[in-house]
Design brief:
Oligomer: homodimer
Strand order of the largest sheet of chain A: 2-1-3-4
Mean pLDDT of chain A: 89
Distance between the termini of chain A: 43 Å
Helix content of chain A: 40-55%
Chain lengths: 262, 262
């Protein structure tokens, strides 16, 4: 079923005006809400009217991303593109997708759009690189996420070996546990999932990584205060910051255009 | 500036199919995100694909509702209608507005739409009426909200006198404090606002009301565990339940239509 075909749009829209952010949501729905919360909190607008305008299209009947990737199917890509193109045609100025796994197809998505995709994997990789430059020479990272995210290394992953033999043994269970926590969040078992994530992070820290990457938006959605810890990298929170930066530039551009007499 | 004129739509859409929920957001932006979180949490879907589809149109440059009401202006109504009609034309099946004060114009909004407005004031009033029927004969309620919400009694309010002279003296400061907390949330001072709301609720409870109504979506957005207390009425949480109920009925209707061979 193509849900987007049921939504209507017309043709062109005037240029040179402030365009809202387009959000492809529903992967999952709680994660979308938490991303929008992060966008509102981090923007620090003084009043309602100064917040970032957005259109969030959350038609969640998108095939399971991890399953499709494991089966070599690109069915989710087609559905994600339908939604992104709908937002583009609606007049959005950039697209954000608060789902890490969906960025497995980041190249195809960018290629299919005439507006920017604010790329959570690019922003997160840059953040990790900056940390490395700052003070840590060989940054040791541990990634939590869906099977596809962990298997296809959407984010910089350190060789398991460097954490020792105990970690290599532990890592198999670690992946299973992360996938279970994500499934718990998707099925509404948020309190249980948050407790399990806390325990898992505690276990992981015994291997003294420099950073732990919450590489699934469901983990970001339940991270709470954890995300404030200096060793936690929350890509969805970084995506919100990237969107705020895009909005700042978009406004500068529009202000210059208007000053130019357009 | 009419932000909606910059967003595009075309004409008809096929009938007899599941239509997403339309959300008029941005009043305020954090409240919109918290409403969507409540919608995702309360729906208890087993997987991403079973969550409620929605289009959230959050163009926050809507005039201040309380100020307009105090000046006898309907400028916000025109902007809210533009957004609601855009969602209607996009093919949404019902409209939800996670802002209590906006419901000052609930009659005009319902009249202007051919689809349902899921009315937070109606749902909340029914909830309070049910509580009264259940076990409390003369239910004593205290309403917190914007100046307009409190002044124009969007929700059942008990005569101040019944709480005694001390409360009548206290109530003036109570209104000022509620309005300040709301302003703090809108300007991103969430931690400060949450602490102040907790203190205010504690003071209010000394007057032993049966229910305290969080009659502004910014208060709902920061209520956290408070909303679980039996004496707290959270209209935005009730609005999410109303939307879930609408979606259940919408699906039954579609299933019947499809079974009917359409």
């Amino acid at each position: 079923m193509n849900s987007v075909s049921k939504l209507n749009l017309s043709s062109a829209r005037p240029l040179g005006q402030r365009r809202p952010l387009g959000v492809v949501g529903g992967m999952g729905s709680l994660a979308t809400a938490k991303f929008l919360e992060s966008l509102a909190r981090k923007h620090r607008a003084e009043k309602d009217q100064n917040h970032i305008p957005f259109v969030a299209l959350s038609l969640p009947d998108i095939c399971d991303r991890s399953q499709a990737i494991s089966e070599g199917s690109d069915a989710p890509l087609r559905q994600i593109l339908e939604r992104a193109r709908w937002l583009e045609q609606a007049g959005c100025g950039a697209i954000a997708i608060p789902c890490n796994t969906a960025h497995f197809w980041v190249g195809e998505i960018k290629q299919a759009l005439s507006i920017d995709l604010i790329d959570v994997t690019e922003i997160t990789a840059k953040k990790i690189l900056d940390m490395r430059n700052d003070d840590i020479r060989d940054l040791r990272s541990i990634l939590l996420g869906t099977s596809a995210t962990m298997l296809h290394s959407l984010y910089p992953q350190t060789d398991e070996e460097c954490f020792g033999e105990d970690f290599v043994r532990f890592s198999k269970g670690l992946q299973r546990e992360a996938i279970q926590i994500i499934a718990d969040v998707k099925s509404g078992k948020v309190v249980k999932a948050r407790a399990k994530l806390g325990q898992l992070i505690h276990q992981i820290r015994s291997f003294a990584p420099d950073v732990i990457i919450l590489g699934c938006s469901e983990l970001s959605a339940i991270s709470g205060d954890l995300a404030d810890d200096s060793d936690i990298i929350d890509p969805i929170s970084l995506l919100a910051e990237g969107c705020i930066e895009w909005w700042r530039k978009e406004n500068e551009l529009v202000t210059q255009t208007l000053a130019g007499g357009e």
